[in-house]
Write a structure and sequence with these properties.
Polymer-forming cytoskeletal protein; transmembrane helix; transmembrane; ten-stranded mixed sheet; DUF8173; 2 domains
């Protein structure tokens, strides 16, 4: 079945692609029930209720209610006295301060952490920080690694308090039901934080778009020829890509066998890694160009956005997404290897041309 896209339909696809790109990288918006994204300051105001917070921000402040989890990286994470987090808090921040109620766990890597005398935490606390002061109620266990730890007079720990610190102070009035244990292995092993998947996906998307823009701007004719090669000879380019992907590491090992070859092998490994990244971007760009060509569009920049964003979305599909991205890598890497070979051969026969190869010249007549 052959689909035909009208002008309105094609413009709609462009709008959707651009919207997906913007939503993955710019300021997060408090949707109906959640806050997700990147922003200077994210505040859940008193009287406001959201389901979760998952963000990069200058500061994350909870004065209202978050029924689920709070996760993010920020300069400051603060649960105010009126604030309530029904789930857990997981974050990396310069300062973490809990004055309100947290129903789940607190896991943080931070410069300073304070659990004040009016705070309550229903789960466990796992913190790695420069300085930590705990003076509130914690129902679970506490594991803290820091330079300075203070267990205040109002501290009420329902479980065990395990710590590692250069300077530890415990007020005699503090209550620790499970006992206090010094553990020198804690520092560096508590308070770890993993960036949310949308952050790493957005970063990868931006990096690929930036690399693609650089390649298209610096090598327009080369890029257009490469895209045309993928369209005309997909099986050949994919096969060459597979041979390159397998043969490259073998060649590097052979070079490294001798001591004199080790420096060359190291440089070769760096170059090979860069070639794989370039191959991924070129492969996605070439597929995007082919799709747009079928829709009657001739725009290399739109092809780049369509290809990179499209494959980023496809990569979210379990198993199949990874297979498709790998296929784009083989196409791009193979086309890159073939174009570099041809460019090297032709370099001595005629000087390089500054004229940009068009899609018509690279792909031929689409109606043929």
């Amino acid at each position: 079945m052959r689909l035909s896209f009208g002008t309105v339909g094609r413009r709609g696809v462009v709008v959707v692609l651009v919207a997906v790109l913007l939503l993955s990288t710019v300021t997060g918006v408090a949707a109906a029930q959640s806050v997700r994204g990147a922003s200077g300051t994210i505040v859940v105001e008193e009287g406001e209720t959201v389901s979760s917070v998952d963000a990069l921000a200058g500061s994350i402040v909870v004065r209202g209610t978050v029924t689920g989890d709070v996760s993010g990286a920020a300069g400051t994470i603060h649960v105010a006295e009126s604030g309530r987090v029904g789930g857990s808090i997981s974050g990396a921040a310069g300062d973490v301060r809990i004055d309100g109620e947290v129903g789940g766990d607190l896991s943080a890597g931070s410069g300073n952490v304070q659990v004040t005398e009016i705070a309550t935490i229903g789960g466990d606390v796992s913190v790695g920080a420069g300085s930590v002061r705990i003076d509130g109620q914690i129902d679970g266990d506490v594991r803290v690694g820091a330079e300075t730890i203070v267990l205040g007079p109002n501290a009420d720990i329902g479980g065990e308090f395990r710590y590692d610190a250069a300077d530890f102070t415990q007020d005699p009035a503090a209550t620790v039901a499970g006992g206090v244990v010094e553990d020198p292995n804690l520092r560096g092993n508590v308070g770890t934080f993993t960036l949310p998947n949308w952050v790493t996906t957005g970063y990868s998307l931006l990096a690929n778009l930036l690399l693609g823009a650089i390649l298209l701007a610096l090598f327009p004719a080369f890029s257009a020829r490469l895209a045309g090669r993928v369209s005309e000879e997909p099986a050949k380019t994919g096969g060459v890509g597979l041979l390159t992907l397998v043969g490259g590491p073998i060649l590097l090992v052979l070079i490294a066998i001798t001591i004199i070859g080790i420096p060359l092998a190291v440089l070769g490994a760096i170059a090979f890694g860069l070639a794989i990244w370039v191959g991924v971007v070129y492969g996605q760009y070439a597929v995007g160009a082919w799709v747009l060509r079928r829709a009657g569009r001739d725009d290399r920049w739109l092809a780049l956005v369509a290809g990179v964003v499209g494959f980023a979305i496809l990569d979210l599909i379990p198993v199949l997404g990874g297979v498709l991205v790998f296929g784009a890598l083989l196409l791009g890497l193979g086309a890159l290897a073939l174009e570099l070979r041809d460019s090297f051969r032709n370099r001595r026969r005629s000087g390089p041309s500054d004229r940009q190869t068009t899609f018509d010249e690279s792909f031929g007549d689409p109606s043929a």
